[in-house]
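lol ok so funny story. i was supposed to be doing the assay writeup but got distracted and ended up predicting the structure for this chain instead. priorities right. anyway since i did it might as well share w the group, maybe its usefull for someone
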Amino acid sequence: MRLVTWNVQCGKGCDGVTDLARIVSVAKSLADADVFCFQEVSDHFAALDSGTDQSVALSALLPDHQPVFRPAVEAVDSEGRAHRFGNMTLSRLPVLQIAGHLLPWPRINAPRSMRRMALDVTVQAAFGPVRIVNTHLEFYSAAQREAQIVRLLDLQEEASTNPLASSAVHAEPYGSQTLAASSILCGDFNFDVTDVQHRLLHASRRPGLNYRDAWEICRPGQPRQPTCGVHDRTQWPDGADCRDFVFVTEDLASRVRHIEVDQATSASDHQPVLIEIAD
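and the output, tada:
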């Protein structure tokens, strides 16, 4: 099973050009992935997408993948038009369940911030159902980010201590709920690997299955490949660091075979990350 996660910055490259076709081409050149997880997908925010729905465009560019887009921000203007911004997961594996979790947004010393969410898509992998949690945490406020991390840990504890398997026939909602214990958590976390918030996730000791950093599993002791600021010094004046991660639950740790960062592309201000998990 191959998964690529990438903060695509609404398709805007370091050259200032917005090009979703380039984004998909680069992502597919890294891997013909079973699952693509994109962050920063815009729908009719003129400054970001020139007034288009990027979720529709990405769906068309990956026609063999089932698209799931959920906004963290959804506003409606005076003419009734929706303006949305959020995360998108596209899966070639069968999709069993979809949940969109709005993450905490405490207004604590945060003059600039926005609502964040986690897109939770359960897919049928060869080894069983797995929840792909695609997220993008707050940039400006560490306090908000920590509250969001705690919520992600709560969701994983809930799922892995009380999993559910839906019936084959979806006749009514009570019997149509799949809650997989296994999970892959990925996205732009907006903390560096040296940050205590990384340890909050990687070293969690909750009941059930805990998350572990796939890089630490697969490449222990090896220097991190930076995931942002590699090509863009305007937004990242302090230089490159690692803010994009893939975490897997403990039961999947032995299946992690490979993880890498595409260092070459400048199609976004972030770099795509690939993980391979054995069937």
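The longest helix spans residues 142-161. The chain has six helices and twelve strands.
back to the writeup now i swear
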